[in-house]
Write a structure and sequence with these properties.
This protein has 443 residues and is mainly α. Helix content is 81%, strand content 1%. Strand 1 and strand 2 (338-339) form a beta hairpin. The longest helix is centred in the middle third of the chain and has 34 residues, at 271-304. The radius of gyration is 21 Å and the shape is globular. The protein starts with a helix and ends in an 11-residue tail after the last helix. The relative contact order is 0.16. Pfam families: MFS_1. The chain crosses the membrane at residues 21-40, 60-80, 87-108, 120-141, 153-172, 178-203, 308-328, 334-356, 400-424. It comes from Lysobacter arvi.
Length: 443
């Protein structure tokens, strides 16, 4: 227990950035801004496709994405086992930059592979892209910042992602009528290029000024096998609980996403109106995210730890889902013309990215590097997309049995309750454990 007390004392002095941390925080901010902006520049194409085909097709999309992530996760583990982070982390982003360049001629001439095939391939690729670039970002952050720093700084750094999420759609809306669709891929690639530069500079800072610079083999290859990350999910209690926590959170997000996709498809008859509605939902959710990050999370995470933040997120999400459960018509306009299903999505998504994600990722700052790079990546990619696939298939099966929108919301509310319990227990256990670089992740 003394360790947990020592971790919290310095964070309680205001939770702000300290003098020597400013250069790295600024680079981390720019890095995450560029990553999320790059994603949100190209996301509208994927969202429009989802609304057009309806949520009953989501299992096929999620299933293909799960297979892709299941194949790429061992590749990432193999790379990090044999090469240092200064090679592997930039390499991941360079790979996705190359993919964006490869998509340019396909969007310029859709007839090359057919519009439907392009849409399907692009949906899967964008989903994989989002998972890996964000997962690698948070892995890198938890590797260069200590647990105490993570609790203070992750809420600040997370704001950058929300700013990028707001800037991305704005860039798309501004530029699409000027340069067209295909060149937007180059805009996304350019943003990722800036992220790579930030990675290089952050690596140099960590080697000379980072608190972890004295840890043994801080930048050395991790070693081990390519399936270590997936094995950790099943054999290590810490990773198993983190996987369950993510699956429960995914149970909230995927159900809400599907319900809103159904509402959009049933309410709007053309691609333009569906895209405009998706953009409006994204904008409101992202504003809620940044407000939460700048106020509640920034105050609560350093003082009360990840468990309290996850608990608040889960409880508020349950309250939002109750609007859908008890609404006589969850598709009827309720607040500012938005129906209950959209409000539930906005609140749960806004707080998930504003509260739950910084809190969840801060837990990894206390575990061994092998877990940070392999297990964390496996959870944030393969496990996440397995959850998407399983939940979407389950929703289709329950629909066949006559389960209603309100009942789906009630199931999500129960998932939120379970997530709150696991998140609280995991936080208490991790914060009470000794420094994990010398301990197993299960401490």
């Amino acid at each position: 227990m003394p360790q947990a007390h020592d971790e919290r004392v310095p964070a309680a002095h205001g939770g702000r950035v300290r003098g020597g941390e400013w250069p790295a925080v600024a680079l981390s901010f720019a890095y995450f801004f560029c990553v999320l902006a790059a994603y949100y520049v190209i996301r509208p194409l994927r969202e429009q496709l989802t609304a057009a085909v309806g949520s009953t097709q989501l299992p096929w999309f999620y299933g293909a994405t799960f297979i892709a992530t299941l194949m790429l996760t061992p590749v990432f583990a193999w790379l990090i086992a044999r090469y240092s982070r200064r090679i592997v982390v930039p390499l991941v982003y360079l790979f996705f930059i190359a993919c964006l360049f490869a998509f340019v001629p396909m969007f310029a001439e859709p007839g090359l592979i057919g519009t439907r095939a392009l849409g399907t391939v692009f949906f899967v690729w964008v989903s994989v892209f989002n998972l890996f670039v964000v997962s690698v970002f948070w892995i890198f952050m938890s590797d260069i910042w200590s647990m105490e720093q993570a609790k203070r700084l992750f809420p600040v750094i997370a704001v950058a992602g929300t700013c990028g999420a707001l800037a991305g759609p704005t860039l798309t809306a501004t530029l699409v009528n000027i340069i067209g669709v295909a060149p937007l891929l180059l805009v996304s690639a350019s943003l990722l290029g800036v992220a790579v530069a930030c990675i290089v500079l952050l690596g140099r800072w960590a080697r000379t000024h980072g608190e972890r610079r004295f840890e043994a083999a801080q930048e050395a290859p991790i070693g081990g096998g390519m399936l270590d990350g997936l094995k950790q999910v099943f054999t290590d209690p810490f990773m198993r609980n983190m996987a369950i926590l993510l699956l429960l959170a995914d149970g909230i997000g995927t159900v809400n996403y599907a319900l809103v996709a159904d509402y959009s498809g049933a309410t709007f008859s053309d691609a333009v109106s569906r895209t405009a509605f998706a953009a409006r939902v994204d904008q409101v959710a992202n504003v809620l995210t940044v407000l939460t990050q700048l106020t509640l999370t920034r105050w609560l995470l350093p003082r009360r730890g990840p468990g309290a933040v996850i608990l608040v997120w889960a409880v508020v999400s349950m309250l939002a889902l109750s609007l859908v459960v008890f609404a006589s018509d969850p598709h009827a306009p309720m607040v500012f013309g938005l129906p209950a299903v959209a409000i539930a999505l906005i609140v749960s998504r806004g707080l998930a990215y504003g509260m739950a994600e910084p809190a969840r990722h801060s837990l990894y700052a206390r575990v061994p590097r092998n877990v940070r790079y392999k297990g964390q990546n496996a959870v944030d990619t393969a496990v996440w997309r397995f959850g998407d696939t399983a939940i979407a298939l389950g929703m289709n099966a329950l629909r066949a049995l006559g389960v209603t929108t309100g009942a789906f919301a009630a199931i999500s509310a129960m998932a939120a309750l379970s997530a709150a319990t696991i998140g609280w227990r995991m936080s208490r256990r991790v914060e009470a454990a000794p420094t994990a670089e010398a301990q197993p992740a299960t401490s």
